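FW: tagging you since you asked about this chain on Friday. Here's the raw sequence from the shared folder, copied in full. Didn't touch anything.
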Amino acid sequence: MNTARQTSANWIPLPDLRPRVCGIVRSVESDDEEALRLKALGVCAGRRVELVRRGDPVILKVFGTRLGLSAALASRVKVEICTPANCLTLNAENP
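HL: got it, structure written out here
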Protein backbone atom coordinates (compact mmCIF):
# COMPACT_ATOMS: atom_id res chain seq x y z
CA MET A 1 0.00 0.00 0.00
CA ASN A 2 2.85 2.38 0.77
CA THR A 3 4.25 1.77 -2.72
CA ALA A 4 0.94 2.86 -4.28
CA ARG A 5 1.09 6.11 -2.34
CA GLN A 6 4.65 6.75 -3.48
CA THR A 7 3.65 6.06 -7.07
CA SER A 8 0.56 8.28 -6.96
CA ALA A 9 2.72 11.08 -5.53
CA ASN A 10 4.35 11.25 -8.99
CA TRP A 11 1.01 11.75 -10.76
CA ILE A 12 0.12 15.22 -11.95
CA PRO A 13 -3.01 16.74 -13.49
CA LEU A 14 -2.99 16.42 -17.27
CA PRO A 15 -2.91 20.21 -17.87
CA ASP A 16 0.34 20.41 -15.87
CA LEU A 17 2.25 18.49 -18.55
CA ARG A 18 4.45 20.65 -20.73
CA PRO A 19 3.42 20.85 -24.40
CA ARG A 20 4.81 17.99 -26.51
CA VAL A 21 5.45 15.90 -23.40
CA CYS A 22 3.65 12.61 -23.06
CA GLY A 23 2.25 10.94 -20.00
CA ILE A 24 0.56 7.71 -19.02
CA VAL A 25 -2.96 8.15 -17.66
CA ARG A 26 -3.00 6.70 -14.15
CA SER A 27 -6.44 7.75 -12.89
CA VAL A 28 -9.57 9.63 -13.85
CA GLU A 29 -11.21 11.38 -10.91
CA SER A 30 -14.70 12.11 -12.20
CA ASP A 31 -18.24 10.84 -11.99
CA ASP A 32 -19.22 7.72 -13.91
CA GLU A 33 -20.71 9.60 -16.88
CA GLU A 34 -17.61 11.75 -17.43
CA ALA A 35 -15.30 8.77 -16.93
CA LEU A 36 -17.24 6.79 -19.56
CA ARG A 37 -17.10 9.72 -21.97
CA LEU A 38 -13.34 10.05 -21.50
CA LYS A 39 -12.89 6.31 -21.94
CA ALA A 40 -14.87 6.44 -25.19
CA LEU A 41 -12.46 9.15 -26.37
CA GLY A 42 -9.49 6.94 -25.45
CA VAL A 43 -8.55 8.71 -22.22
CA CYS A 44 -8.37 5.93 -19.64
CA ALA A 45 -5.92 4.33 -17.21
CA GLY A 46 -2.81 3.01 -18.90
CA ARG A 47 -3.24 5.09 -22.06
CA ARG A 48 -0.39 7.22 -23.41
CA VAL A 49 -1.40 10.83 -24.10
CA GLU A 50 0.56 13.84 -25.28
CA LEU A 51 -0.24 17.41 -24.33
CA VAL A 52 -0.42 19.56 -27.45
CA ARG A 53 -1.61 22.85 -25.95
CA ARG A 54 -2.45 24.17 -22.51
CA GLY A 55 -5.42 26.43 -21.99
CA ASP A 56 -9.16 26.00 -22.13
CA PRO A 57 -9.75 23.78 -23.92
CA VAL A 58 -6.70 21.61 -23.27
CA ILE A 59 -5.63 19.97 -26.53
CA LEU A 60 -4.14 16.50 -26.27
CA LYS A 61 -3.20 13.73 -28.64
CA VAL A 62 -4.43 10.17 -28.13
CA PHE A 63 -3.57 7.53 -30.74
CA GLY A 64 -2.58 10.29 -33.14
CA THR A 65 -5.94 12.07 -32.82
CA ARG A 66 -6.25 15.53 -31.27
CA LEU A 67 -8.92 16.01 -28.63
CA GLY A 68 -10.10 19.13 -26.85
CA LEU A 69 -11.12 18.82 -23.20
CA SER A 70 -12.28 21.56 -20.88
CA ALA A 71 -9.54 22.54 -18.46
CA ALA A 72 -11.79 21.52 -15.56
CA LEU A 73 -12.32 18.01 -16.94
CA ALA A 74 -8.67 17.62 -17.99
CA SER A 75 -7.52 18.52 -14.48
CA ARG A 76 -9.32 15.41 -13.17
CA VAL A 77 -7.09 13.19 -15.32
CA LYS A 78 -3.90 12.29 -13.46
CA VAL A 79 -0.86 11.27 -15.47
CA GLU A 80 2.65 10.05 -14.84
CA ILE A 81 5.23 11.74 -17.07
CA CYS A 82 6.67 9.26 -19.55
CA THR A 83 10.16 7.95 -19.04
CA PRO A 84 12.02 5.45 -21.22
CA ALA A 85 11.05 2.77 -18.69
CA ASN A 86 7.29 3.36 -18.72
CA CYS A 87 6.51 4.95 -22.09
CA LEU A 88 5.07 3.10 -25.04
CA THR A 89 6.81 3.84 -28.30
CA LEU A 90 5.05 5.85 -30.97
CA ASN A 91 5.46 2.93 -33.35
CA ALA A 92 3.48 0.67 -31.04
CA GLU A 93 0.59 3.14 -30.91
CA ASN A 94 0.68 4.38 -34.49
CA PRO A 95 1.69 1.51 -36.77
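FW: The mean pLDDT is 83.
HL: agreed, and Helices lie at 2-8, 32-40, 71-74, 90-93.
FW: great, closing this out.
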